[in-house]
TrEMBL record:
UniProt-recorded name of the protein: GST N-terminal domain-containing protein
Pfam families registered for this protein in UniProt: GST_C_2, GST_N_2
Domain of life: Bacteria
UniProt organism field: Candidatus Magnetaquiglobus chichijimensis
GST N-terminal domain mapped to chain residues: 11-73
Length: 226
């Protein structure tokens, strides 16, 4: 199958599909998309011109969760549990991970300390749902020995939180121990580390500095820290 993948190096949803493609050795061509100046034709592949998107033998498919499941199906990758209920649980939490990512973005874009604290509390609450739910009961497909699509959905967020550490504190002083251990384990994996460009940390900070200029996070970041 001929797969052309449309991605951007700084996009967390793109990082998800890059991890899965690498993990499952999905042969593809990656076409970089400049988000600041997206080509008009992108809307033919993805109706809201979002990335990631792809063409599989010319057929357009978009959304990171759908693309990850496509890759998993093509490779029979076993990245979701076989049991329908366990699989449904994983899909539900992959959906929830989008809310975590979106609250992280709100933290990054917050214009002042008050807005930042509201977004940070929301992020902590959404992460705590993992802590008190599937991680506590050891649900299938969560932080196990094998890389799952839930792991992949969360790895880009964990990567970004780690890159802000020391400059902006997002983790609470106590709590979220299981989530933090999950983050540590995922970030150690070669497939996660190698799913972003070598200079990702300074690129990410520079991106935030420009995108959220004057905001709470941007003014606290040391762009030249790496
Ligand atoms: N739910 C989508 C979200 C994708 C998304 O929001 N991608 C961002 C880049 S990180 C995008 O293309 N945004 C369009 C924009 O900036 O207008 C997915 O999981 O693929």
């Amino acid at each position: 199958m001929d797969i052309e993948l449309f991605v951007n190096d700084l996009c967390p949803y793109c990082q998800r599909v890059v991890i899965t493609a690498r993990h499952l050795n999905i042969a593809h061509r990656a076409t970089p998309i400049n988000l600041a100046s997206r080509p008009a034709w992108l809307s033919e592949v993805s109706p809201q011109s979002t990335v990631p998107a792809l063409r599989a033998d010319g057929v357009a498919i978009f959304d990171s969760s759908v693309i990850n499941e496509l890759f998993n199906d093509l490779a029979q990758g076993g990245m979701l549990p076989a049991d329908p209920v366990d699989k449904g649980v994983c899909r539900a939490w992959i959906n929830h991970s989008g809310q975590c990512q979106s609250l992280f973005t709100q933290c990054c874009l917050a214009q002042d300390a008050a807005a930042f604290e509201i977004a940070r509390k929301g992020l902590i609450d959404t992460l705590n749902a993992f802590e008190q739910g599937p991680l506590q009961r050891g649900a299938r497909g969560f932080d196990g020995a094998d890389l799952s699509l839930v792991d992949v959905a969360m790895a880009p967020l964990f990567t970004r939180i780690a890159h802000l550490e020391g400059q902006v504190t997002l983790w609470p002083e106590t709590g979220l121990e299981r989530v933090r251990a999950w983050s540590d384990r995922l970030r150690e994996k070669a497939v996660v580390r190698e799913s972003v460009p070598e200079k990702f940390a300074p690129m990410f900070r520079m991106f935030l500095k420009n995108r959220a200029a004057g905001g709470h996070v941007a003014t606290r970041m040391n762009v030249g820290a790496d």
